[in-house]
């Protein structure tokens, strides 16, 4: 038996082919979309990345320290140990312990230096020091240096408690700093500072001794730097 396809039937079939192809394409698109949606829903969501810490905040020996420029020198600030307030160049509110004594020695010494300028160092000497204040002011007014501020700027600090009791009324703090100038001279700048706890805060004894050159940081704990 033979099958004879008439011309009319073939033409009708040819007209149906485009619709069949279109329907198949639509079904394939729907299936593909459903497949990829299912995969994306099954995958765990990406975890948000934590913001990078501030480059000026570092971990110090007593917790986080924020380094900020003061009188062209970077100084550490601690939320726990001070200074808690800074008004008209005067840093106040240091804790009555080792960390507070070291921070007070750094801040008061720097702010009572010629680099801070007469307006600031006069106020600091008047309100945050004890001893021969006039001798300290005379010493500051005569200070001069041929070295640039960049060369003498401390880049790293170390400390040691060399006398007294930081939880008592009197303490002696040894500070060692590394700067471009000190490295060229083959060592570190060494400062000795005596502080007294008076009226709820630390006061610096004046006049302060001049810095000395030290060849190592032995016996001192690193505070850090910016």
Automatic annotation (TrEMBL):
Any matching Pfam family: DUF8175
Start and end residues of each DUF8175 domain: 41-211
Name the UniProt record assigns to this protein: DUF8175 domain-containing protein
Region of interest (Disordered), residue spans: 41-67, 207-226
Transmembrane segments: 17-37
UniProt keyword annotations, A-Z: Membrane, Transmembrane, Transmembrane helix
Amino-acid biosynthesis recorded as keyword: no
Entry annotated with the keyword NAD: no
């Amino acid at each position: 038996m033979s099958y004879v396809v008439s011309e009319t039937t073939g033409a009708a079939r040819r007209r149906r082919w485009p619709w069949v192809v279109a329907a198949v394409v639509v079904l394939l698109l729907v299936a593909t979309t459903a497949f990829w949606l299912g995969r994306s829903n099954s995958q765990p969501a990406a975890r948000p990345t934590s913001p990078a810490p501030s480059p000026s905040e570092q971990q110090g020996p007593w917790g986080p320290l924020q380094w900020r420029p003061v009188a062209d020198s970077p100084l550490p600030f601690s939320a726990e140990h001070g200074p808690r307030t800074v008004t008209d160049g005067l840093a106040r509110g240091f804790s009555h312990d080792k960390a507070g004594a070291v921070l007070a020695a750094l801040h008061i010494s720097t702010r009572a230096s010629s680099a801070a300028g007469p307006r600031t160092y006069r106020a600091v000497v008047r309100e945050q020091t004890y001893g021969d204040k006039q001798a300290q002011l005379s010493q500051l007014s005569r200070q001069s240096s041929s070295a640039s501020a960049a060369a003498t700027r401390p880049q790293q600090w170390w400390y040691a408690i060399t006398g007294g009791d930081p939880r008592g009324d009197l303490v002696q703090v040894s500070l060692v700093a590394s700067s471009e100038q000190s490295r060229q001279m083959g060592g570190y700048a060494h400062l000795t500072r005596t502080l007294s706890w008076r009226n709820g805060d630390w006061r610096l004894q004046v006049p302060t001794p001049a810095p000395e050159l030290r060849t190592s940081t032995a016996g001192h704990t690193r505070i850090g730097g910016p």
